[in-house]
Specification:
Layout (H helix, E strand, L loop, with lengths): L1 H16 L13 E3 L2 E3 L9 E9 L20 E3 L8 E6 L5 E8 L7 E6 H6 L7 E8 L2
Parallel strand pairs: 3-7, 4-6
Antiparallel strand pairs: 1-2, 3-8, 4-7, 5-6, 5-8
């Protein structure tokens, strides 16, 4: 019995020495792309951002997104580097005033200067399918 207690104490002390073990909630674990590490937000409350939006379509249709669901270019979804999956955001095209609500279900865009990658359906609603990009404002829907 004394031996079991001694082993237990040694194990507890080893666990305590491990230090630095970080526990991440599902879908907020940091990830690295092209040498840059991104830290997804635990909460999107109050989040706004202005920058360039782009869109992605056909060649990704049906592939798994970072959230695990299949990408459907005909749904109102988008990719963002740090917003939690499932977050709904208003996206306003600052060049023509058109807006849309999209749900974040993927990670990206990873091209410098871009803040959101829209599905083809969202890009159509914002009228950016021909230009490919547009300056937008993103605001989390409360």
């Amino acid at each position: 019995m004394l031996r079991k207690i001694s082993v237990f104490i040694v194990l507890l002390s080893l666990i305590g020495c491990g230090g630095g073990t970080t526990v991440y909630k599902k879908n907020v674990k940091p990830y690295t792309v092209a040498g840059t590490t991104y830290y997804p937000l635990e909460s999107a409350k109050g989040f706004t951002e202005t920058g360039v939006a782009s869109w992605y379509g056909g060649k990704f249709h049906g592939r798994k997104t970072a959230s695990g669901e299949r990408y459907n270019q005909n749904k109102m979804t988008a990719a963002h580097k740090t917003l939690p999956f499932g977050t709904k955001v208003y996206v306003k095209n600052l060049e023509n005033g058109k807006s849309a609500v999209v749900r974040i279900n993927d990670r990206g865009p990873f091209k410098k200067g871009r803040v959101i990658d829209l599905s083809k359906a969202a890009a159509k609603k914002l009228d950016i399918t021909k230009t490919g990009t547009a300056k937008v404002r993103i605001k989390v829907k409360d």
